[in-house]
Amino acid sequence: MTKPFHLGWFLNGTSVPAWNKPFSGSIGTQWQQADIFVDLARAMERACFDYVLIEDNTFVGDTYGDSMEVYLKHAFQAPRQDPMIVATLLAQATERLGIIATAGTFAYHPYMLARLGASIDQVSRGRMGINFVTGTSDRALQNYGYAGMDEHDRRYDVAEDFVAATTALWDTWDADSVVADPRTGYWADHTKVRRADHAGPYFSTRGPLNTGPMPQGRPVIAQAGGSPRGIAFAAKHADTIVAIQPTAAKMKDYRDQVRAAAIDAGRKPDEIKVLFGIGPIVAASEREAQERIAQRRAEMSSNIEVELAKLAKSTDIDFAAVPLDEPLGELSLRTNGTQQFAEFARRNADKTLREAVLGRGIGNGAMVAGTPESVADQLAQTMETVGGDGFLVCSDGVTRRFIAEICDGLVPELQRRGLTRDHYSFAQLRDNLLEF
């Protein structure tokens, strides 16, 4: 029998690309209040998900066709509210669900991010996480005064120093430093609070943090490294890793690489939970599921510029200027953006750009479709092959129907089989991640 696995949800920021889809309600006009995302978090908690990861970027796309039109027309990754604010909102609306907010190492100073993460961990009673990202677009860096991104591996050099500075600040208060003893008159024991005194090649900070100790000691660290350097970085620092792989075999290979890198970094591999992105379609019947797949593929084919614009945004390649019907292997496409594109191009070298893009699947990650029972079968079989650790639900947009299909349709079937938890054993995110 497949051992229990973890569940997370990859929330595509607080943008609303499903605003004009069926069952979307009024999210197109009422997006500012983020009510649908509060509804999502509460439904996830009822279903005992481990965490919601709030994805982020800090620019409005304009790579495709050198225009913002496609991105704004379809509300693709814009609007985006600050994930730290949204994290606080979702934490207030829940009691056990983990909340992970994305932060670019180019967009913060370590002290600012350490203080934000510590504060939200405190007010959420130990449910906060930070997803450290190095950036995938020159556009984002230009909003912070840089000319563009550094070369790929140098971005990880910067990230190494950033994480070292941040964790040094988180470690400036011992867990028992606050005594609050009215007999002695001491609120905190100064001998258990220290300066960070971090002086690295890119960042320096004196410390200590002025927030006080955190319930978890440190917020959970998430990462999504896909290149060899990214995998090494994630395996060294992360408590949970987000991975997008198209098949169970590739998931297993990726997880094996992470676990080997963890050993090389002196860590226990079981301390790191790798969650693989899935794009689930859960329907009342197999026929309905297949009809929805066909409908989605037809929409993608008739609106291929949307799919190309998505790829352009993460790679900094203007696919409006790339021939659609020439094999990828014959095109000279270089990018300093996400390294997942290199694997995508290799895997589809004999296909045209049109064929490769339309064959990417529905949503992000591996596609699974069917009734709750058959999707549960597919997920169980995949985990049997991969060996762990769980799945991250991804979609191009959130509607209340989709929330119900996952949280009230699929998850109860997984729980009935003992594949996912039906209650939280612990109050804090890290403890729940380490439960199995």
Give the spatial strand order of the biggest sheet.
1-2-3-4-9-10-11-13
Structural class given helices, strands, pairing? alpha/beta
Instruction: Work out the oligomeric state of the chains in this entry.
Output: single chain
Span from first to last CA?
Answer: 15 Å
What integer is the average pLDDT? 92
Summarize the helix and strand pattern as letters.
EHEHHEHEHHEEEEEHEHEHHHHEHEHH
The description of the largest β-sheet is:
8 strands, parallel, barrel
Total helices: the number is 15
**Low confidence ranges:** none
- Rg, please? 22 Å
Strand percent estimate: 5-15%
How many β-strands, per DSSP? 13
- In percent, how helical is the residue content? 25-40%
Shape: globular
Description:
The protein has helices spanning 35-46, 69-73, 83-93, 110-123, 138-142, 152-170, 228-237, 248-264, 286-302, 304-315, 340-347, 353-358, 372-386, 400-416, 429-433, and strands at 6-11, 51-54, 98-104, 128-133, 178-181, 186-188, 198-199, 204-205, 220-223, 240-243, 273-282, 366-370, 390-393. It is 40% helix and 14% strand. α4 packs across α6, α7 (228-237) packs across α8 (248-264) and α9 crosses α10 (304-315). The protein is an alpha/beta fold. The strands form 3 sheets. Strands 1-2-3-4-9-10-11-13 form an 8-stranded parallel beta barrel, surrounded by 7 helices. The longest helix has 19 residues, at 152-170. The relative contact order is 0.16.
